[in-house]
Each structure stands twice: as C-alpha cells, then as structure tokens.
Amino acid sequence: xxxxxxxxxxxxxxxxxxxxxxxxxxxxxxxxxxxxxxxxxxxxxxxxxxxxxxxxxxxxxxxxxxxxxxxxxxxxxxxxxxxxxxxxxxxxxxxxxxxxxxxxxxxxxxxxxxxxxxxxxxxxxxxxxxxxxxxxxxxxxxxxxxxxxxxxxxxxxxx
Amino acid sequence: xxxxxxxxxxxxxxxxxxxxxxxxxxxxxxxxxxxxxxxxxxxxxxxxxxxxxxxxxxxxxxxxxxxxxxxxxxxxxxxxxxxxxxxxxxxxxxxxxxxxxxxxxxxxxxxxxxxxxxxxxxxxxxxxxxxxxxxxxxxxxxxxxxxxxxxxxxxxxxxxxxxxxxxxxxxxxxxxxxxxxxxxxxxxxxxxxxxxxxxxxxxxxxxxxxxxxxxxxxxxxxxxxxxxxxxxxxxxxxxxxxxxxxxxxxxxxxxxxxxxxxxxxxxxxxxxxxxxxxxxxxxxxxxxxxxxxxxxxxxxxxxxxxxxxxxxxxxxxxxxxxxxxxxxxxxxxxxxxxxxxxxxxxxxxxxxxxxxxxxxxxxxxxxxxxxxxxxxxxxxxxxxxxxxxxxxxxxxxxxxxxxxxxxxxxxxxxxxxxxxxxxxxxxxxxxxxxxxxxxxxxxxxxxxxxxxxxxxxxxxxxxxxxxxxxxxxxxxxxxxxxxxxxxxxxxxxxxxxxxxxxxxxxxxxxxxxxxxxxxxxxxxxxxxxxxxxxxxxxxxxxxxxxxxxxxxxxxxxxxxxxxxxxxxxxxxxxxxxxxxxxxxxxxxxxxxxxxxxxxxxxxxxxxxxxxxxxxxxxxxxxxxxxxxxxxxxxxxxxxxxxxxxxxxxxxxxxxxxx
Lengths: 159, 658
Known about the structure:
- The complex is a heterodimer of chains A (159) and B (658).
- Chain A has 159 residues and is an all-alpha fold.
- Chain A has 6 helices and no strands.
- Chain A has 2 domains: 3-99, Cytochrome C biogenesis protein (Helicase, Ruva Protein, domain 3); 107-158, no CATH class.
- Chain A has helices at 3-14, 36-47, 65-79, 84-95, 110-134, 143-158.
- Residues 1-24 of chain A have low confidence and may be disordered.
C-alpha cells in the first residue's frame, strides 16, 4: 500500500469522510455545517432525496436552486434537533413520496420491492423443476464404480 | 448532391433489407437453394449502401453544410474537426444511422465468415437480421431522416450540446452500439434455431464468439461512458443509476448470463432452451434500451434528443420483435431437445447459479427503472426510484454471486465437489480475510464497508490466480508447470482475466465509495488547502479562449505529501458561445491508481470561488477492471477452438479437458 493511501485513510477518518457514492458538485461552501458529524448526516440524507425539478438527481448532486433550498432546509431541521427519520418524514409530508429516491415499503410499492425475491424464487423453482424433469431414474453406482470415477475426476481436475 | 446520394443509398439499403429478409426465408421454406444463396450478397450490399449513406452524412458534417437540418441543429463551423465528425452520432438521427450501420455490418460479417455454417441456418440468420434491418430503416426514413434539407440554408449551426463536445463521444457511443447491436446476431441465431426447430453443436459454437464479441464492446462502452461521466459532469461520481445507464446495464447483465450459459451449452449440450431464451432476452434489453433513450419516455440527463412520436414507432418495433420472438419461443421450444444431465453441485450448477442471480439482477434493474412509469400510468401517483434503491437491492444480489465466482472454475463438469473446491481456495480465502483485516486495522468500524469490499475484491483476484496456479500444478516443478501453463486453453486465461477484472472493479468501487476524502470551500487566489496530504495553492484565476467557447480557468500549484512540487493542476468553467451553456472542466491528476479531482463551482459573495476537491483512492481500478474484463473476453475469443472450421487441435487429447 502506498503512503499516500495510508495518509489518505487516516485523513479520511479525521475528516469523518462522508460515505456517499456520488458526491456533490452542488453543495456550496456556505451551506456546510460547522459540526462535521451533523454535516455528514445532512449529506447522507441529501443523497436519499430527489431534486424535484431535476432529472434523476439527488439534491446532493444538483445545483438547481430548489435543491439548494432543500439542502438548507435539511440542515435547518438537523440543527433544530430533528432525527434523520424526522427530517425525511417532514420532507415527505411536504413534497410527497416523489421526493424519496428509495421508495417506501408499502402495498403500492410491493411489486417493486418484491421483484428480486420473486425472480430468485421463481428462477430457482424453475431450475429445480427442469433438473427433476430431465433426470431419469437414478441408479446408484457400485463402490468400485464410484471409486474409479473419483479417480478419473481427480485426474481431470489435476489437468 | 452528396446529401441526396446519402438519402438515396439509405432507401436502397431498405430495399436490400427487404430482399435480405424475404428471399432466404422463402428459400428455406421452399427448399430452394438459389433463394437461400441470395442472403449473403444482399447482406453485404445492404452494408455497403448503409456505409455510403453514413459517409455522406459525415461528409456534410465535415463540410459544415448547414443546409442539412441535422447538421444545422448539431454542429458549428468553429468546432474542431474531430467534434464535427463525432457530432454525426451526437444526435438522434445520426445515432440511429450508426445503429443501422452496425446492424448491417454484423449481417455482412455473418455473410462473410459464415461459409461453413449449415446452409439453412445461415440463410435464416441473415434473414432475421434483415427483418430487424427493415424495421430500423423504416424508422429512419419515416420518422428520423438525417438528410432533410433546410431552405434557405442558415449561415451558422446551433452547435453540438457542449457536454458532448468531448473525446468521449468519439468512443463511447460506437462501442456501446457495437455491443447493443452485436446481440442482434445472437437473437438472429436464436430465432433461426426456433424456425428450424434445430439446435446443434455448430449453433452453440457460433453463438458464443458473437456473444463474446458483443459483450467485449458493451463492457468497454459502459466503462468508457462511466469514466466520461466521471470527468465531464464534475460530480466525481462513476455510476448514477440513471435510466439510460440502466438501459445499457440490463443488456450487459443478460449478455454476461448468456456468455456463461453458452459455455454450458457448448461443452455439455445442456441448458439449450434456456440459452435460446437468454439470447432473445439480451437483444430485447438492447431494443428496450434504444427505446428508453430514443423516445425520451424517461426523462434523464441523457435525453438530448427526445420525441414521443418516434417513441411510438420504436415501441411498435419493440412489441413486434420481443413479442414475436417470445411467441415463437413458446410455440417451438418444446421441439428442441433439452439434453445434458448434471448434478446441482457441478460446473453446470455453478453457471446456473450465475445465470439465476444475473437474470434476477437484470429483472430488478428493469422493474426499478420502469416502476415509476408503471405507477403513474395506473393511478397517476409519482414516485422516484434512484441510486439508494438500486445500491441496496443490486448490492444484496451481487454479494452472493461475487462470493461464488471463484468456486465456478474450481468445480468439475457434471458432478463437482464443493468441499474439495473450498480446500483448493484456502489460500485465496486466507489472503482475502487478511486484507480485510488490514484495512480494518487502519480504519475503525466505520470503514466496515471498505474492509468487506477489499476482502471481496481480494477473494476474486486471488481466486482467479489460484485457478491458474492449481492448473499449473506448482508441486510438480517449474518446467512441468510452465509447459502446463502454456498448454492451457485460452478460455482458462480468459476466465481468470475476466474474474480478476471484476475483482479490480469491486476494489475500486469499495475504496472510492468508502474512503474518499472531500473538501468543499470558497477560495481566493493566494489561499491554499490540503487534501489527503496534497497541498493545493490557488495561484491564478484567468479567462482563456477556446475555438468555440470561453473558459475561466483556475490554476493550482500542487505539492506532494513529502513537500515535493508536482506541477500545476487546473480546473475550468466553460461557456459555449452558440448555446450559452456552461460546463465544468475538472482538473484531474492521477497518482498510482488514485486520483485528485478538482472541480469549480460558482463565484461566492466574498469574492472567492467555490472549489471542490476529492481524493479518490484506487478510483481508476473501476475502469481498469472493465478493460481487464474485456481483455479476458478477447483472450477467450482468440481460442482457436472457437473458430469453427479451423483444423481441430487434436494433437493433445488432454486439451479436451476443461
């Protein structure tokens, strides 16, 4: 590992680096809160909220005026002592679920959230079914046969 | 005149495609060899006509012929020549013409290299390719004519969207389209097999290299696009889960699954029906991607050319091809024999697991991308599905697959031994855990994600190395190992490189996401700032002049961790004159695999300017990994066993193993 990485790691710690995949072009210096922990929370919340007038950008990424207003709003709420959940709930009550980049778990979004599970289960069941159907009645190998086979397979693996 | 020639050539290409679609199909139905033989020459002629048409459009761009509406809307006389030329596909009409050009190119390639294919299969494949061509030529001529004229001709063009005035535009769309459209060959093979109800070894041997070639281009195209967005947009992000990115990612996921299932089909004659279905799915995702991007149905940052009327046309193409091929599949799949038995714990089983996860991931991205549209259509309610959703769901699916990857090549065909495979991976496992622990030592619990990511990446990399080392049999002495390594088929190296590339990408993503350092501040000239041990002295802020833009450029003196001078780094804000549109030019310096990234914001009230600086550890590995993956594909593609008709390498019977 390079020295720059190590110093980078240490510095990242000290700065309480924000764990956001796509950080901001947008956050401007005067918005940044003095308290790094609070600022980190503000950034994390901002990445979850949609800039309502933009196209698929979070308020953390967008330099639209509205995004700036929302970022300041998030920080105001945090300064007044709201929890992360309260800040998000406040914005949802104001702008609707549209503001969330990660939709809520709700009946309406059931299909969205259940897709991975449904696809996995259906695909797995299909694979099992296909394997079953394909399989003829299995006849067990004699011990000699399986020993010979193991030997062969082993040789194959070694190649 | 050149413009009219281009238009005429495009019309001829449509006519040729009609013949290319109809004659061979009639030939295979009637058993007429002469009609089947029409396929090849027509496909080549269609390609030549499309190429002529494309060249004509390019010539009008090069000459800045603003009497052509398309050139007027997307070019400017002051643009450097390279951007004049790339402007050809930096717009809707031109990029659809590129689509058609690549489609006919692949058709011509089958005609050229398909001499040793069974006659009927060859005719059917080229015919299906022709049918796709007809649809897209009609689309071009009826809704998106790139050769429409303006009268009177304007004096000056409206310029290309400034974000697209970049070298990235020269590389990214052609690569991406080569990938997208390359899957049309797999699709044509699948439909041809369904038409004849026949799947044999030649089929699989043909489909795998085509899939591989398309996949290589798509991988490079996506990686290139990601890097382009990273440096051009000034956000420092590498993946945004933007609908248009998803549109290219879904065919990639399906294509990666196809690549793996085609291996099973080729080697073991199993998963035949599934492979045919996957080939249809992969191209369906390509068509869907074209629809999403071209129709503007999903508003996104890529929607530089949107028109709902065209959307309806592409939607019709989408419905006819996907619906038609799936219906054909439902009708004819039963006639194909399944064949090939295997135990769940086996190489085949591992590849089925790979397919299960990849297809689930593609389905998740698909539903996530379209769900807002779906809800809005049903009850008018609006929701957003963005990066936080995809990171969570896709991440949860990807993790088990990444853990399983090194096991795959360790398993034997037909019946494997999971315990033995685990034993052989002990070294890789130990190394991965050690590296995870090392990261934890320097970073506390907050960096758990970085540690897990590093461990996972090391697991993939060491797993790939283990495979080669074990096949070489190190205990048998250097000369034996060497000759064994030389004797390994290319596909083994391809697999190792592909999986190692995946490891590199995972490493880059984990390190950058978890450990990057960011500074946002207002700076005046003369001030300095330190990021990750590097010091930047804000030396000057000065206006400069480009060919068709003005740029305010900030110059920083860079000093390294040890106090050594590292020269200058500069970032700029440009305004393009024709469109009055601002863009950012990030300043990027690469140190090893890591990068220092400087981006400018707006001027501040106190007279300074907003500056954002990131230290992005190992960020370049994200894209290097993509290139290594593509390299793996290339190595595998060079395997002579894939070249049907090449003299079979039977000197060493041992080489048949694996």
